[in-house]
Structure formats: C-alpha cells, structure tokens
Amino acid sequence: MPTDITNTSDELFEIFVNAQTFKTILHSFDDLCQSIRIDRKIIGYGKRSLYKVLTSKLTSWKSKSLWTKIDKRGSQKEYENGNACADMKVCIVGAGPVGLRLAIECALLGARCIVVEKRDRFSRHNVLHLWPYIITDLRNLGAKVFYGKFATGQIEHISIRQLQCILLKIALVLGVEIYSNVTFIDVIEPISTQQAWRAHFKPEAHPIVSTYEFSVLIGADGRRNSLQGFQHKEFRGKLAIGITCNFINHHTREEQNFEEISGVAKIYNPQFFSELQQQTSIDLENIVYYKNDTHYFVMTAKKQSLLDKGVILQDYPDAARLLARDNVNSTQLCKFACEAAQFATKCSTQFAFEFAEDHHGAADVQMFDFTSLFHAVNASRIIERNGKQILMLLVGDSLLESFWPTGSGIGLGFFGLFDTAWSILKFAKHEHPLKVLVERESIYMLLSQSTPENTKNNHQLYSINPATRYQNSNSKSCTIDEIRYLYDSDSIPTIDMNNNHVISNKSNRTPTRRTQSFKQAPSPLSLSSSSSDGNNQQETVFEWCEEIVNSYNINIKNNSKSFQNCLAFCAIVHYYRPDLINFKSLQPDRPISNFQILFDIMHNQLSLPLDRKLQNSLILSMKSSIEERIRQSSIVILQLLYTHFHHDHHEQQLKQRRSSTPSLEISSPTLQKSKKPIDNTNNINTNTTNNNNNNNNSTVKVSALVAHYSNGDTSSSANNYNLINLQSERAPTFCFYCKEKVSIQDWFVVEKNVLHVKCFKCDTCHLQLRKTNYQVLIEPHTGKISFHCRYHNLNKQQKVKHKTKQKI
Questions:
Q1: Structural domain boundaries of the chain?
Q2: What is the Rg, in whole angstroms, of the alpha carbon atoms belonging to the chain?
Q3: 64-101: per-residue pLDDT in tens?
Q4: Residues 464, 469, 470, 473: is their CA dihedral positive or negative?
Q5: SS3 string of 228-243?
Q6: What is the CATH number of domain 9-122+134-146+162-232+377-468?
Q7: Which of 323, 361, 443, 542 is the most buried (most CB within 10 A)?
Q8: What angle do CA 487, 489, 490 make, to 5 degrees?
Q9: What is the distance between the alpha carbons of residues 703 and 710, in angstroms, rounded to a whole number?
Q10: How would you classify this enzyme at the top EC level (predicted)?
C-alpha cells in the first residue's frame, strides 16, 4: 500500500510539472498535496515548512533534481536556513513575473507569503529578452525541470506566460499561497494595539485574504499601481508608436525555418527597411522577431505610414488622443502587422499568419506609445499606527517602467525585487525604519542606471545583498533628512541629522507634550514655561483664527479638513494682505499646491522662514488621520502667523488692508526687522555666541523664534535678525538649470542649489549625474557654476587653464 501511494504522488508531481495554465497548475498542486495528506494548518506556513514535507515525500529523479537546485539556492547565508524572516507575513499584489519571483525570495527567507491576482489566467504572449544573470538565476531555481527548452543553445528569450508558469510552480513548492480573482482595494489601519494591518479585497468574503494580517505589503501590479501614497512621474520623449503582435506557432517545417531577428534598426540596415517600404508601403524604424510558443513581433512604425495605411484615422498632436481606440482601425492594424511579419520572415505566399488570442479573446495585436514611461519617486514607505508598522514597497513596472524590448524591463525588475527582499530582511531584523528607508532609497538610485555591462560579472554569487550585484553600492547616498517624509508614524524617533545616524530609542507622541528635536516640527506648547499657559495661548490662537476664517465660510471647529487643505492658513494671509494671495484661485483638492503657495509667501513676503525639513514634516502631519497630530502641526503655522499679524501694530495692518495698498514700506515693523542692516555687529556676535552655548551648537528652534516675536521688544532688532538667519533660510524654489519652479516634494539640493533630479546632468555630455559621481567647476573670472561628470570636468579644467594663460 505505501508503494502505491508513493507512485501516485510521483505521477501527480509529473502532472503538476507539465501543467501549462494558471488554473491547471493550482488544481494539480492541490491534488498533489491531498495525495500526501498535507494540512497547512498543522505544518504551518513559514520556515519553508511545506517544502520540507514535499522533499521528504517525493523521491522521483525529477523531484530530487529540483530539490537539489532549490537547496543550493536556499543555502545562501542571507536566508539563515529559512529562519531569517520567520515571523514576517507578506502580501504581494500581482502575480506577474516580478511578483512571483519576489514571493519565492520571501519563502526562502522563511516568511509567510500570500499573492493575490485579479485575473484567473496567464495570457500575455509577449516575449522577453533575458539578461545573462536572469538565465543563471532561473537555472539555479530549476527552471529546466519545468520547461526543458529554457535557455537552450543561443535562445535568450521566453514568453511572459511561460515564465509566469515556471515561477508559479516554484513558488507553490516553496509554500507561497496564491489566490486568483482577488482584487486589492486599500489597506486597513489597526485601530488598537491588539490589531495588525489588514487590507480590503474583493470579494470581501474571501475565507483567507479577508482576515490575513501582514506587516509587509508589495505592489507588483504594473504601472497602474494600486498602493496609495506613492507618487509617479512620467518620462516622455519624441513620439514613437510601437506595435506588438503574436501569431500562433503551428511548428510546421516552414515555420521552423523562419530566422529570428534579435533587433534591427533602420540606421544599421537601411536596405531591409527600404525594400519593406517599396513592397508594402510600410515605413518602420526597427523590428524584433522571436519564435517561441508564438511568433512574436515588436516594431516601431512611422506615424505617416500608419495614416497612409488607414490604421490611424485622424492625426492629432496629443499622443493619447492619436492612439485612442476610436481613432484606430483594428482591421487595418491586423493587416499592417501581417504584412510586416510576412516580409520579415520571408514566408511563402501560401503561408498565412493566424493571430493568437489575448485575455479578451481578440486578436493579440496592440499599438501604443513607446516613449511614455513611468517611474516612482520613491520605492518604499513605512507607516506606524498604534505600535504596528507596515513596510510598503514597489517592484517591477510599478516601480520603474523600462524599454522592455531590450530586456531592461525584466532585467531591472529582478534587480529591484532582490533589493526589495533585502529591505524586508532588514525590516525583519527590527532595524530602525529610517535606516531601512535610507538604504532602500539609496539603492533605488542605482537601479535605473544598471546594465549587464556595469554590474558584477560573477552571476553565481548574486544574492539579495546589493553588494553582490552592484559595482559601487552606496547604502547611504540618501540622507535621513531626504527620506524623513516616507516614515509616517505616531511616535517620533530621535535623530542625529548631522551624522545621518538614527538613535534607536523613541518617545511616544502624546496630546500634551512631545520630545523636541531641531529637525522636527517644534512643539506648540514650548511657547510657555507651563503647560497650562501653553494651552491657554493655544486656545487664544485658535479663537483668533476662527474669528477670521468665519468670514470666508470656513469652519474649523471639529473639522480638520480646513487645516489639511491649507485653506484656513491662506484665508488668514488674505485677510491681512489680500495683495499677496488670490484666495479664489485656491483649490481644496490640491493641498500640496496650497501649502507651496503659503510657504513661498511666508518666506519671501513675510520673512517667516520655514526650512524644507520642517515644511515636509508639517505637510506629512497634515495628511495624517490623527486629529491631535493635525492640531499640533496646525498650531505651529498659526502661531507664526499670529505673532506676525496680531502684533502691537495690528491696527496699522488693518488700515493697510482697508486701503488695499500693496506697498511694503508701510507694513509692520516685523517685516522691517529682517530687512534693516545691522549696525551693531558686537550685538550680533554676542547673541550668536549665547545661542550656540544654550543650544549646543544646534539651529535655533522655530518655537524660540515665535516666542521672541511675541515678546514685542523692538529694541532687539539685531537679535531678531540673528534668529531668522540661524533658522537655515530656505533656498530659492526655482531650478538652477531650467529656471522652472520646484515643488516642495521635488527638491534636490546640490552645492546649495535647488534643481530637479532630471536636470542634474553633465554640462558637456548631458549624462545623468548622482550625488556620488559629480564634479563642480567654477569659472575663475565669471564665477559661473557648472556640474560635470569626472571625465569632462577634467577636460574642462584644462581648457580653463589654457584660456587663462593666453589672457596673461
């Protein structure tokens, strides 16, 4: 009897290995587990528990060869024999190649991992070009056990559908739970210390995922990322219209003789494209042909050719409108693709290409804009509520959308998922959230620039540790100051910002008082020596605010939205200085823009500087759902406005408002304090010394600045000037290169100059620069600053010296 059971299990394993669809793979694996009486509730979910049972039950030569491969991979020191993340629970949204590959890494680390996929089938026939290290990685996981043709001979490509099938089988063997027809909606915060993070899914009554509690959430569902809180930017170049199509491969003798085209461009083979245009009137820039389960073609077509062939009905300057469904003739598009495929393969006139079907049951041919590529501004976030933290990460096209015909999409996707697994490991080791974020964002800066040529050559040594893959991996190229806004917490870490070092102890945020750190938003209660006086002054400020904003039909009683969208603050500025702000132009649904306008006015017109770190902290607090947190951040801004406008010269401000005179010369002395030249330099030096001694050489806190102004002592103008300048004045908000406005969240500071990240390029060759690989050149006569890569900086310096000698 035991022999029969063993034979049955091996036969079921063979059926599982040969399954070729999403549904049959899941069903055959369930049958396999039932045959060997596996109960997941008994054996557990983490620490590779399922895999250990399978290796002991399945003993065929094919299964043993797979176990050998996986055991070798799982023996890497980072995994700690499957115990590195034994207490972690991970949820991955999306069962694409990158999502499934990351699930495998989580299982190897020992975490429990659930993958949810809104579809119930793998239907993407598009073929991926594989970088060498990906071929090595998949071989080491036993890909050839499930797909014998993988990487045979000179073949360096595979269809997305086939790759998903391979990775799905490996993930199931390692204990990953995968559920189809499940759509992720949003996360659910824990409302008490007894609860953990969960998510809202559809269907809501799913027996497993609806109650699943996790501490890591991964977005792997493509460019339409469903995880909230991640901002994306679009890279768009000159219009390039791409066409992809898949034809059924019947494996006939003629089809076997078709020669693949790994990639040919018009500039390298003009004769090919000239003959194509003469014979078919099709004008292409390039074409790629791979032969796999389907005949896969990808080509870039000229717009005029598509118009002439009737594929595009009307010409529009907007790419989205040009390629909209109602402006494309699908019949002519299929005919266009067939003619190009017949010419590229040199098939006989009797041969007819037959389209494969997509997941909608239609012909698998698509046309789209190649040049529209998205990337996420940041790769990670950490949110903490009631002592429960969640690490949110993006991978694949959700993180960085690349030009995939060259293989960079899957190549960078795998690199990114390894980096993500490394962050999960650090998070599981209870490293401080800010340190985890600093390292993840620092490595993310390297990702887009990675190629097979500039990464390490020994692919067998690759692991989730970035140092094994990147040539120059700097895990601290980002500072804590730059990523602080990515950590949304109801407890405040103590940070040594000067040394980019995190001190692990934390102080819980309470309604009465919070630990003060000069890089964090100042406590509104620090205006007074006693808490009762501070509370009284807070009530006075809120009453003053309420009296003003009532005339603007803004209600701030038991309503935090007016503070969150910045309208209450802007109303106060408009009430006293209508010449500074157009209140009617403000939009409640654009809070970031409103805060940008407010901070610009406070800095440039009112001489109330808030440095960038404080601005980010205030905006992040305003986006919180915790009422007390919003109130504390609101009082910081209100106190600055209160002490400025509600001064001893309040009547003079009202007089100016009634006359609507925009002249700054009659404004309050508070404005003039920071603009008058200081004659008494001895007072400045004395005050500076005293400040440094009292604050241990740290920047004067905003609360001290507010308290000083509220004093109303006009005789100490020198001290006022010193306080304002010590509050690290904010840099201009216009890009050093393109001179366009830089929003708060996009600030990128280099050598005290603010610029867009995309503008930080070599002045000579326009190579994208990073903070770790640039050089500054200052012209000796003009003082002009320019940034260069190291090669061109050296050449530039030599030219400057030569010119100087000639002038002499």
A1: 9-122+134-146+162-232+377-468, 238-370, 539-644, 744-806
A2: 31
A3: 999 999 999 999 999 999 999 999 999 999 999 999 99
A4: positive
A5: CCCCEEEECCCCCEEE
A6: 3.50.50.60
A7: 443
A8: 165
A9: 11
A10: oxidoreductase
Which residues, at least 6 apart from 759, have a Cβ–Cβ distance to it below 8 Å? 735, 736, 737, 738
Structure tokens at 536: 């009284």
| Three-point CA angle 26, 31, 34, nearest 5° | 125
Consecutive 10-residue runs of the chain (808 residues): their mean pLDDT?
56 92 94 88 86 92 94 94 93 96 96 94 88 94 92 80 95 95 93 91 92 95 86 78 92 89 83 92 91 90 93 89 91 94 88 87 87 86 92 94 79 95 95 93 91 91 94 85 84 48 44 29 34 66 84 74 80 84 80 80 78 66 62 78 66 46 33 35 39 38 38 36 35 69 67 78 80 76 77 56 44
Alpha carbons 567 and 561: distance in angstroms, whole number: 9
* CA–CA gap between residue 492 and residue 517 (Å, rounded): 9
Instruction: Give the number of other Cβ atoms within 10 Å of residue 156's Cβ.
Output: 16
Q: Which residue has the tokens 């045979």?
A: 152
Omega before 203 cis (within 30°)? yes
Instruction: Please indicate, yes or no, whether the overall pTM of this predicted structure exceeds 0.90.
Output: no
DSSP secondary structure, 118-174, as one string = S-SS----PEEEPPHHHHHHHHHTTHHHH-TTTT-TT--EEEHHHHHHHHHHHHHHT
Are the CB atoms for 167 and 100 separated by under 8 Å? yes
d(CA 491, CA 507) in angstroms, rounded, equals: 6
- DSSP per-residue letters across 426-493: HHHTT--HHHHHHHHHHHHHHHTT--TTTB-S-GGG--SSGGGTBSS--TTSS-HHHHGGGEEESEEE
Q: Can you tell me which residue has the tokens 């009762």?
A: 532
Q: CATH number of the domain at 539-644, please?
A: 1.10.418.10
CATH architecture of 744-806: Ribbon (2.10)
Is residue 158 within 8 A of residue 135, CB to CB? The reply is no
